[in-house]
Amino acid sequence: MESPFLKKIEHIGIAVKDLDTANQLYTLLLGAEPYKSEYVESEQVNTSFFKVGESKIELLTGTSGQSAISKFIEKKGEGIHHIAFEVEDIVAEMERLKSLGFQLINDTPKRGADNKLVCFIHPRSSNGVLLELCQSIAEKE
Ligand code: ZN
Q1: 34 C-alpha to ligand 1 centroid (Å)
Q2: For all residues of the chain together, what is the average pLDDT?
Q3: For residue 63, what is the DSSP state?
Q4: DSSP code of residue 104
Q5: Residues with Cβ < 8 Å from 74, sequence gap 6 or more?
Q6: Mean pLDDT of 102-109
């Protein structure tokens, strides 16, 4: 049975120490360059995105020691940081998951990279994996 709520794995986020080196490696691996690089001020991270079929790989590196990504790498080393699911209505989905007992990290959706509204689910309530919900923001004309 298909999930009526989570539409697809939108991307997998990977924490890396050095974005340039990781970009080169993924460009070799995929035979394609990142389609986007973006600084996300609220998270103090630099990101780059690669298209893989209908999903993406998001490489993340911290731009300060305070960044969650820097702290993650310090504790656990480089590796998979989060899995992001695409949703159509992030507010409704946050309500649904909260009522089911999932622990949300942010109470309201926040602006993430790649034109998305995002919300994170604490790994404590999801088998040790940080989950992200993301909804595309409609492009303004
Ligand atoms: Zn993400």
Answers
A1: 15
A2: 95
A3: S
A4: B
A5: none
A6: 96
Find all residues with CB under 8 Å of 19, minimum gap 6, and list them.
46, 48, 59, 61
Give exposure, 38-54, as e/b (b: 16+ Cβ within 10 Å). eebeebbbbbbbbeeee
Residue 138 pLDDT grade (very low, low, confident, very high; cuts 50, 70, 90): confident
> Is 113 a residue whose pLDDT tops 90?
no
pTM for this one? Answer: 0.93
- Helix, strand, coil percentages (3-state) for the chain, rounded to 5, are 25, 40, 35
Query: Average of pLDDT values for 105-112?
Result: 93
**How far, in Å, from the CA of 100 to the mean position of ligand 1?**
23
**99 alpha carbon to ligand 1 midpoint, in Å?**
23
Contact criterion met (CB below 8 Å) for 18 and 61? yes
